[in-house]
Amino acid sequence: MAEVNMEQLLNCALCPNMCRCDCPVLQALGHEKVAPAGKARFAAMHQQDHLELSNEIIEAIANCLGCRGCTVLCPFPELNLCDELLYARTPDSVDQSGQLPAWEPYLANLKKYGSPYGQKPPFGGKSSRGSDVLYFVGCTALANHPESVAVIGKLLQQAGVNYQLIDEDCCGYPAETWGDPNLAHSLAAENIRKFVECGAKKLVTCCPECWLIFTERYKKWGFELPLEIVAAPAYFLGLVKEGLLKPAAIEQTKLSYHDPCIWARTAKLTKEPRQLLESIPGITIEEPLFSGELTHCCGGGRMFQLSFPKTAEEIAKRRLSEFTVGAGIVTACPFCREGLSQENNARIIDLLELLANACCS
Question: What value does the mean pLDDT take over residues 264-285?
Fold first, then answer.
């Protein structure tokens, strides 16, 4: 397991805690035990053998979306509390309990099917070996919006890009999130094997969680990636700028963009999605109350919708209240799409689907 940085953990635990106003879990639940410093204190006490890792403590520490909203006002620039909390509750060995009962069926699905959602849909991807571009869909989009595979195919074919898909397994991040690092590493090794076998030079993904684990986690786990990892919004913006995709006007013109937390705060990917929207003639962008790196989480990070569905729903409601009434909400993350769509009146549009409507209709 990764080692906890006790200095940083204690910095958070003893801090005046200005990040309280930007923690979506604390805002939704109102309990001190799920405040950033509250979780840090639990984690620090456990690391110092003052507190056993009971289900109640694991649940409190695990009430973290990985959104890094707490970094906005944090006085410690090197502190990544999201990861420190994760490492603190990850068991040192398989003999220790670091998992909640609610996670067990999803972990069982990962072991059996390679997806937390259960059996994967039949593989219908292009298997042409030798294509330089591999598009990695991600298990959430495959399970909940399998039509996204066809959407991506339309865009890439329209641009004349020779690409391939693989019979992909989950990236492994959910397994780590749910306290099974061995399973996470096993899934990573299987993905690396498939990446090498397909021979692609560039992997493009619309899933920020997958992007994060490929660019950060795999290296920490000791895996060497055989190809470049590219965020889909940046990749498709490049195709538009090269003139390979030529968006035309669409019916919906008043739109707001919801910044996914990882794209905005980790990848610093805030301009590219908006430039893609602006490339569609007639589009007017109405920014929500919090946007860019100051974005508020949708409630879907780190598989939170599966782990804590009621809290995720409350966080989504709060985020939706920050948008202009009547404007369509566009996002570039399958988790955000799922989280914000929990509200029946919310019209959530996937960025690449919108682009496909403008380029391929």
Answer: 95
